[in-house]
Write a structure and sequence with these properties.
single chain, 108 residues, mainly alpha, 4 helices, 84% helix
Length: 108
Amino acid sequence: MGKLKIGKREIIIGLIVLILLFFLILFGITGVRTILGTLLFLIPCYLILNNFNLELDEKIIFSFFIGIGFFSTFVYWLGLIIGSLRISTVIVFFVLVLIGFLIKRLKK
C-alpha cells in the first residue's frame, strides 16, 4: 500500500472548509458570507503575489493585508463613479484577477 501524500494545497482547502463550517455553525449563513467575502478580496492579490518568489504563508498574509487596502479602496472609488458597489466589486475582482494572469504571462 502506497503512502498517502497530503500537500499544502489539500491542507489549505481542508482548513477553509473547516473554517466555513465553524462560521456556519456559530453565525449561520451570515458568517459564511463574511468568510467568502474575505476570500473575495484575498484571491486576486494572492494570484498577483503568486508570481513572485514568496513562501505560501507569506503570500496568504501579504495578500490579506494588501487586499484589505487595495481591493476595498478600488471598490469604493469605482462605486462612487458608477453608483453601484455590487457592480464595482465584480469589476475590481475581475480586473485584479486579470492583472494576476497578465503578470504571470509577461513573466514567462
